[in-house]
Design a protein that fits this description.
single chain; 171 residues; four-stranded antiparallel sheet; mainly beta; Immunoglobulin-like; 2 helices; 8 strands; phosphatidylinositol-4,5-bisphosphate phospholipase C activity; 36% strand
């Protein structure tokens, strides 16, 4: 399995386990997971007045992602500040087959740099929420339709038989 591009796009995150490592793993799932991700063209060019891309600038929405799921407690976007957010599903107690049927809509200004972040937690009234799994996916690699999304543990190791059934739409 070869790389699609040879340009290197280094995205630096703090080292160690946790959300920072999850984001880094998610970002590099692009391009077949080979470790090389080409910079988007807007990061390689300079404007007519020598301006460069400003991730904090107020930009128009380029793409809207609608995410539907049945077994998720937290879903969000990591990217430029205008796109970064996290939303949670409602809590369902004492149900062996919980179904949320909730949709989340994310208006993305820079979808080329956005990651879909998913965390699953078990809610227990007597104790704190228990982490059950996570995944991060580059929005640029998502395809419309119903998909089986793998889950990973805190260290980024994929669970063998655990997947989330999700539907992605770009509206």
């Amino acid at each position: 399995m070869g790389c699609k591009e040879t340009s290197i796009f280094y995205w630096f995150f703090p080292q160690g386990y946790g959300r920072s490592l999850w984001l880094m793993h998610g970002f590099y799932k692009s391009n077949g997971g080979c470790g090389y991700v080409k910079k988007p063209d807007f990061l390689l060019t300079v404007g007519p007045n020598n301006e460069v891309f400003n991730p904090k600038a107020s930009l128009p929405v380029k793409k809207t992602l609608k995410v539907s799921q049945s077994l998720i407690l937290a879903v969000g976007i990591a990217g430029v500040p205008a796109d970064t957010m996290m939303k949670k599903t409602k809590i369902i107690e004492d149900n062996w087959t919980p179904v949320w049927n909730e949709e989340f809509i994310f208006h993305l200004t820079v979808p080329e740099l956005a990651l879909l972040r998913i965390e699953v937690h078990e809610y227990d009234m007597s104790e704190k929420d228990d982490f059950a799994g996570q995944t991060c996916l580059p929005v640029s690699e998502l395809r419309p339709g119903i998909r089986a999304v793998p889950l990973f543990n805190r260290k980024g190791i994929q669970f063998n038989s655990v997947k989330l059934l999700m539907r992605f739409e770009f509206v």
